[in-house]
Amino acid sequence: MNKQQAELLNGIALAYIGDAIYEVFVREYLLDKGLTKPAMLQKNATKFVSAKAQAKIISAMDEVDFLTEYELTYFKRGRNAHSKTTAKNTDVVTYRISTGFEAVVGILHLTQQKERLQEFWDFSLKTIEADLV
Q1: pLDDT digits (tens, 9 = 90+) for 88-109
Q2: Do 101 and 81 meet the contact criterion of CB atoms below 8 Å apart?
Q3: Buried b or exposed e, range 96-126, using 16+ CB within 10 angstroms
Q4: What is the DSSP string of 45-103?
Q5: Which residues are catalytic?
Q6: How does the annotation summarize its subunit structure?
Q7: What's the pTM?
Q8: d(Cα 29, Cα 6) in Å, to the nearest integer?
Q9: Could you count the other beta carbons within 10 Å of the beta carbon of residue 55?
Q10: Are the C-beta atoms of 7 and 111 separated by less than 8 Å?
Q11: Cα 42 from Cα 104, distance rounded (Å)
């Protein structure tokens, strides 16, 4: 997929791939930290991938103007997208913010912005790492 095609995707599609990419980042990080027991992996992964965690990261990013205008465009596209799925363990607003978060990861991945995606991950890690067991 080229950049132009990626930029035309709807917010849900971007969040779909962004969710998968972010999940891989988290899983690799946890394994690298030496966590191997399934219960601990799941418990700690949830601290990164839950809608509440992703909303917390976006809030922290907003406080320091971390997101570029380009990224904000795709965050809003994801946040404002109408999804058929419903929030499981959170309110609708938090769920939509997390969809926006995942959409940013998706657009960065699909447009091959690897350095910026790493910066995004590093910021996310710093924001959530203090909550790890």
Answers
A1: 788 999 999 999 999 999 999 9
A2: no
A3: bbbbbbbbbbbbbbbbebeebbeebbebbee
A4: HHHHHSHHHHHHHHHHHHHTT-S-HHHHHHHHHHHT---SS--SSS-HHHHHHHHHHHH
A5: 19
A6: Homodimer.
A7: 0.93
A8: 27
A9: 20
A10: yes
A11: 24
Terminal Cα distance for the chain, rounded: 39
Q: What is the pLDDT of residue 98?
A: 96
Q: Which two tokens stand for residue 41?
A: 């992996």
Residue recorded with tokens 């995707």: 9
CA distance 125 to 129: 5
Distance, in Å, from the CA atom of 24 to the CA atom of 103, rounded to the nearest integer, reads 15
Burial grade of 83 (CB within 10 A; 0-12, 13-18, 19 or more) = middle
> In terms of residues, how long is the chain?
133
| Rounded-to-5 percentages of helix, strand, coil across the chain | 75, 0, 25
